[in-house]
Amino acid sequence: MPSDLYNYDVYGNIDDLQTSFDVFKYLRGATEAFSLRYFFVMKLPDDKSGRFETHSVVNNWPPELIKAYDEADMVNISPVTAKLRQTSTPVIWSIEEKFSRTAPPNLLHVRDCFYRRGFARGVSFPVSDSRGVRGAVGFAGDRPVFEDGEILELSMISLHVFNRLSDIIFQSVEEEPPLSERELECLRWTAVGKTSSEIATILDLSEHTINHYLIGATKKLDAVNRTQAVAKAIRNGWI
């Protein structure tokens, strides 16, 4: 893992990333370089509404973890999210500190899901882009505690990634995709390797419904299969 400040290429040609999938691949590499397992980029809602899967821009969380997290309404009750709304400094957390042994059963279920997946501790960064949009970028795993230099490097990565994603998203608005939001959502999850069954779990829909959305997106994009549909959507900057 990086030990000396700037030992890792903190910028990693972030400005050259063209799609949200490019950002996903960059973050996957950065996460592995720091001996971590998971990452997320999300918009911070102004009020307590919505779920993680609706506010998340990119992430590599397992479907069952997203499902458990949202069923417990964690994006709105999590002390980490609450602190991210109030601070401009990194929020370092661990499962032991955030989940009491006397917590309600639904929260203990989330804690157990975290532990099973090696989601023991992490760090999240409050970020904002040039347009004033507020968000958060987080990293997690089961490695030892972070060194100060690593926190600084991850903070710089988070700021630059969030701004690049913001540019990509706003650029794609110029040419509206011929797809519904659900079709785009299914394509985004397909792009990061999720199966129809896994997407159904994440979105709390039937696998049949997910396949219906993916078939519709494929036809609208005049693609021969969902893989080509994903490629076309990425090329146009829609996902």
Describe this structure as you would to a colleague.
The chain has 239 residues and is α+β, with helices and mostly antiparallel strands. The protein has helices spanning 20-33, 52-55, 63-71, 74-77, 79-86, 95-98, 105-116, 148-172, 181-191, 196-203, 207-220, 226-235; strands spanning 38-43, 56-59, 91-94, 121-128, 134-141. A hairpin with a 5-residue loop joins strand 4 and strand 5. The protein is built from twelve helices and five strands. It is globular, with a radius of gyration of 18 Å. The chain folds into two domains: 14-172, Transcription factor LuxR-like, autoinducer-binding domain (Beta-Lactamase, 2-Layer Sandwich), CATH 3.30.450; 181-235, Winged helix-like DNA-binding domain superfamily/Winged helix DNA-binding domain (Arc Repressor Mutant, subunit A, Orthogonal Bundle).
Question: Which strand-content bin applies to the residues?
Answer: 5-15%
Mean pLDDT across all residues, rounded?
85
How are the strands ordered across the major sheet? 2-1-5-4-3
Query: In whole angstroms, how far apart are the ends?
Result: 30 Å
Q: Which stretches are poorly predicted, pLDDT < 50 over at least 5 residues?
A: 1-8
> Which fold does the CATH topology of the largest domain refer to?
Beta-Lactamase
Q: CATH superfamily name of the largest domain?
A: Transcription factor LuxR-like, autoinducer-binding domain
- Describe the sheet with the most strands: 5 strands, antiparallel
CATH class of the largest domain: Alpha Beta
Helix count from the secondary structure assignment: 12
Q: Any guess at the CATH architecture of the largest domain?
A: 2-Layer Sandwich
Helix amount: 40-55%
**How many domain modules?**
2
* Total E-strand runs: 5
Overall SS class: alpha+beta
